[in-house]
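#help-structures
NK: newbie question, is this the right format to request a structure? protein is Fibronectin type-III domain-containing protein
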Amino acid sequence: MYIPRLPTGISYFVRIKVLGDENQVLVETPEIRARNEIVSIKCEADEITAPRDIETKQKGQFSVALSWHPPECGSVGEYQIELRGLAEGKFDVHHQTVAQPSASVTNLLPNTEYEVRVRAVDRSKAVGPWNSDAIIVTTKGDAPEASEDIKLEYTSDTDARIHWTHTDEERL
């Protein structure tokens, strides 16, 4: 854990609490004596590492807001974000590129689980690794009903025309 602007060279007593969804204490450690020390990280000249500490800041029915800390190594030019829907039999993938370590990803499906991946790209366009921790976020709301009324109207070697009954939800 990193607490910004905490003076170095001082001993602190730390207690770690693990909270549940409704902020109930699930696990609590006894006090631990800790020192805040300056740590230097050695990076290779052309190395770029993965973004760190990805968090979901806000969830909506059709969007999520994310933030993260920059990589420890590398000069970041941009970040690539991927959200991949985890529902079986559904293909829902979203890609986005941003300059800052935060983003709002929109046009998602309601009540759908997504795996979140973020990686940094340096100024010379070298692509770093995806974040290593599995980040799963679920959008709010009710998932739309799957349409059973699907008709194939036309097909050729290169084209197909499909017709289905549209849902009442404007955003889908």
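mod (FA): yep, format's fine, and the tokens are attached above. The chain has a mean pLDDT of 85.
NK: thank you!
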